[in-house]
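During the first year of the project, the team set up a workflow for recording each protein of interest as an amino acid sequence followed immediately by a discrete structure-token representation. This format lets reviewers and collaborators read both layers of information side by side without switching files. As required by the reporting guidelines, we include two representative entries from the current panel. The first entry is reproduced here exactly as it appears in our internal archive.
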Amino acid sequence: MTRRIALAFAALVAVLLVAAVLPLGAAMQSREEESFRFATISAARQVSAAAEETLVDHHPPDAMNEAVAAAERDGDCVGVFAGTGALVTATNCGTAKDSAAIALATRTLSSKSETTARSGDWLRAAVPVGDEDDSGAVVLARSAESLDHRVDVMWGWLALTAVACLALGVALAFALARWVSRPLLALDTTAARLGDGALDVRAPTEGGPPEVRRLARTFNRMAERTETLVHAHRGWVADVSHQLRTPLTALRLRLDVLAGEAAEAAVEKQVAAEQQVAAEQQVATEQQVATEQQVATAPQVAAGQQVAAEQQIATAPQAAAGQQGAPEQQVAAAGPESPTTTPPNQSPVTWPGPDFAAELAGVQEEIERLSRLVDGLLAVARAEAVVARRVAVPVAEVAAERVSAWEPVAREHGQQLIAPSASRAAASLAPGDLEQILDNVIANALAAVPTGGHVRVDAVADRERDRVVLHVIDDGPGMSEAAKQSAFRRFGASSGSGSGLGLAIVDRLVTANGGEVRLADTVGGGLTVVVELPAASSAAPSDG
């Protein structure tokens, strides 16, 4: 901008100088030539006056010869011609008596007027002698070298003055252009940094035209308002995320304890069932043994019953007294032979129920999803708030490290994760941003790819555009066009297992570092995430 203003002003000054200097120089040159011509004619008149005494008044030629000699000493060439055109006297140089001088004298004799003619470096002036016809004529030739020298000097001074004026105009133009453009450039730089996320920058309000200073103050008010709104939004998101983490953590702990208790209750229920089965088997065994013993002692029981009948008849009085203690003895005798069992109408404890474990697992999964959602919101707020100094980051090396970190996860799900080939391409990013970008993109790709699928990471350098291009290619189900358009919005691509913030975080981090991210279809099916980052050799570091 400074150069354009200065060049425009310099062109205007040059046009004005040309329009002023050329006519001035031409006028001064014409005046010098006229002055030289008048001086030449005046010198010729002096010789003509001396020659008039000889040619008209017929006096001795002494005065005429003296005038011719004086002109010769001044460097002029003089020729005196009679009315018939004959040469009366002349100086030693032949310029005033050659054919051109004779022709000029003849023309003066015929016209009776003063004439001049320029021939090469000589100016010839012819004046008539006396007032009578055919009295004679004087031709005086004077070198025009002095005239040409004065004209050259005059044009030189004019050119030098014009160049000086042009230089002064260019200097003033640059000063004016800087006075106007410097605050505009500062405002442009401030706006660019504000667009990159440095919300605390302000444009200088000193210097420059009043309109530019007013524009800077208006921009600063807008930046302050934007900073206040963005910080309020980020603070709200961060506060909500932070406050939600505490109850979610407590709820997860309670659910973990409940899951442990449910597992212990299930184990105890299984042990009780096993013990009940063992007790039932023992009762059945004891009943079988008692039956076998009863069959073996049947004859002795019959004999004993006959003897008892006889004794009962003999001891009838004592039998009535002994009936009171008989039930107690019967109960005591029956104790070892009748084990205690659970009544048939009483059911065992059934907590936890058969669906309790599945329901508890579902609750824990939802809690885990909410935790990821809160962590994602907090990560987005931090990604938008931080504007760090960019450094050169080896893209292929960092990508290989992240692939190695995610390799166990891919192996566990039967997927193949392919690292990029070795490359020296380096991108300009804030420290740690590339790791977060790759973690989110690889996590999304592994979540989308089925068992047996492939995820490949590539990094190439685009030297024509000074970019480093990172590809994360999968052969999963891919995305529809509508899903691609909303993928980088918060919760725009959320699924049942994700928070919908991964690609939003990627977009914020890539944009904050001056790059671009887009989604493309993989040849043969799948999705390709293309991340373009500024190369380290072309990106200027920015302070946050």
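The second entry, processed by the same pipeline in the following quarter, appears below.
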Amino acid sequence: MSRITQFWRPTADNWAGGVRSTFGRSEFDDGEGQVPGSERSRIQHETAIEQAYVLVEAAQGHNDAARVERADREAAAGGWDDVRLLLHFARSLACQDAGADDSGHVEAMSDLAARLAVPSLLALSIAVKAVRNADRRRTTITGESVASLFVGAVVLLDEPDAAAPAVHRVAALIEVGNVAHQLGFWELALEYFTLAEQASTAALDGRWSDIARRQLLVVTVNRCELLLDWSCALAGIHEWEHAAAVAGSALGGDDPTDDRWPPSWVTQYYGQMHLLAALAGNEPHQPAPANVAALGAAIQAARAGDDVRACGLAEGPTQFVEIPLPSCTHLLALSLAARRPGTAPAAIRYGDQLASLRWNDRVDRMAGIRDAIAVERRRRDHEQLRRDLVLDELTGLANRRGYHAYLTALQDPAAHLGSEYAVLMIDVDHFKAVNDGYGHDVGDLVLARLGHIFAGHVRQTDLAARLGGDEFLIILADVLPEVPELRAQRILRAVQTHPWTDVAPGLSVSVSIGIQHGGRQELPALLSDADRSLYHAKNHGRGRVGTLAPSAPEAR
């Protein structure tokens, strides 16, 4: 098949002027001088994303490996992992075009997507892997299930992704549609191409209008091929009326081709539209190469019940066609050609039965995949609900329920956990004065920002929790005795140097921290001793770290 992954294959002329490997001064000059550094960085990043998408285009027929490498070096220097992901996508497509192994680039996309945690880019990377695995399943049984990858990508696209460029979501929707088409789930593929069309149309008036316009072209070409594949499959089981309805949905409207379309794409599109018109029972008006036109005439003859004429016309197209056609179109040509006079009736019935079995299997598999998507959506909803139960909504840290769940897990004798732990009890200094002087909305913003600061100073094995009000707790797992005070001092400095005046003019915030270190089995006592250390810090000037010797066992 010839489905297009992203955009068109540029000609040498439009490619030469389409991309710059470095950023020109004019992009950052407002006519009065240079723009501020943060704005310059944003523009550079957006320009790099746009360049990466153009390189993805070029990889499908006009790859420039040196330009991709230069763009990758710039992206690495800028810390733009999203750009690097798209450049690995471009390399993957170039490998596919050359018949080379692209698995390293597909894995690199997955690694970068996991690091970024952007839903649309995660969905894109998973969908690319699914397409590759679908291609390879014809020759190998190894690799992740295409269906499970597809389900994962679909459900990721349910997640909000407002912060990411709209074109990332469109790219993911196109690729998910391609996976669905590859699996024979034409109804699902059409749904995702329609979503991609809607999302790219909505982006036409924004920053990404040029890329969105090109993505619309991709949707147009891929949907045409999808509808041809689908209607030919229906014709192959003699559902001519249903085939006509599907094919007819592609007809009508203005001719979308223009001078931005490569000539090969125009030829392919017109040829496929010629066949769709024949399947719909219309007189084809689009020009088509000789064997494509012959297949269109064969389809018309078969629709009219003239199997002999259809067989004669289909013979040539079974050997060669001038444009890429989907698999079910080739199968329909073979089916029509097989009905030549003299063919054993049992052989024809055998072919018809196989076509019906393939269709019924497809319907069953699609029902199964829809059920799997529904199950995965419910699983994610339940997972989110569980997270919500143990997370503080304001700060994003664990709440008391999450704190107790963490302590319970530490008591599990089967858990392979470190033996040395530290507790940091944290209290916001004069928080009541913040609420009284600035209002509770500002107070909530302070707590939210503190939550972000504390979260940035813990590892996955640690715990940061809001116990209530302005009381926080951090548990550091598997740490040496000298670490807790160093960590507490860093937190203290991070709070002191935070730009609180951005929250409210004149606002300043400090915290007091009490720390205690000991063995895992001593955690209940450590919590009590850290609380004592906190009050020591508050009673000796606030805005500091307090450390007291552990209380005697009998006092505990």
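For the second entry, the following points were noted during internal review. The CA atoms of residues 45 and 545 lie 41 Å apart. Confidence is low (pLDDT under 50) at residues 7-33. Both points are flagged for discussion at the upcoming steering committee meeting.
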